[in-house]
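@channel sequence for tomorrow's demo:
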Amino acid sequence: MTDDNAGKAGEKDMKKKDGTDGKEITVEKKDKRDVVVHPIVLLSVVDHYNRVAKGTTKRVVGTLLGEVSDFNLHITNCFAVPFEEDPRDPQVWFLDHNFHESMYAMFKKVNAKERVVGWYSTGPKIKPSDLSIHELYRRYCPEPVLVVMDVQPKDLELPMEAYYSIQEKTSDEVFKRTFLHVQSTVGAFEAEEVGVEHLLRDIKNASASTLAVRVGDKIASLKGLSMRLLEISQYLSQVVAGKLPMNQEIIYQLQEVFNLLPDQDSEELVRSFAMETNDMMLALYLGSMLRSTVALHNLINNKIKNKQLKEKGSDGKAKKAKGKDKKEGDDSKKEDGGDDKSKEKDKDKDKDK
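structure tokens (generated this afternoon):
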């Protein structure tokens, strides 16, 4: 088999035989690998933006490092690269590739497994000069990936989009490159998960209660679900109207979602929901009764304590008043005795005379 035939065979779907019954299983080969972005990359990009372009309309650019694992492209590290562009002419830009090469040489000494896999930009959207910058990174990586980060996300979704560049045939028989969107997710190793949990623990609002945080998370999840349902509805409406072509894979996934939904007309499901709701309401009712009883008990104890303190205060005042009167009576008696003695002395003196 020649190299051309081998290449054509590699482009087709791979087939392998099952050892049990000898059936051929078709494995669909992906054109592009899915991108998994690790938390340290997100933190580094946000830190780069806050140091260089916060409060301005500029964007920052840097190099992505990573490796291929589990048939996915894992972006595990990144570093900033000096970048400038003319806001009036997007085709005028400068990227310091000498700085990029020296930084990558130092990173390679630390971790030889990490290699250049692409570059990032804080667009927050794709710009006209991105294809030119992408061609520059093709010198260091045959298939670089572009990750566009939104450092100030407003919607409840992942603040990043990943793209590969592909050749697109135009009407004038000239191949032109364009960006192809690929699936991107956020993943982490076990050690990274521990570090992220510690960071999130520090930035939590200490004044908010656990119940308030849980309710806020539920509301955010419901808002995200509502947005996704709205996108699905808009897509299906455009497909029915003929504005968009029908994608069999998307329709199949939607059918799987609908198949997993529970049958809400089933009596067993309705009864189970009612029992669960009654159990929860019983627990809430008992909790409210106990809280009211404890509050009433504390109120009665407080009144008894205040009454005892008041009685002790009145008894103390009465004892002080009695002691004061007794002391004044003793003083008057002493004064009367002194007067009598002085009178007797005067009488004795007169007798002597």
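heads up for whoever presents: Helices lie at 3-11, 39-52, 97-110, 130-137, 190-203, 210-241, 248-260, 267-352.
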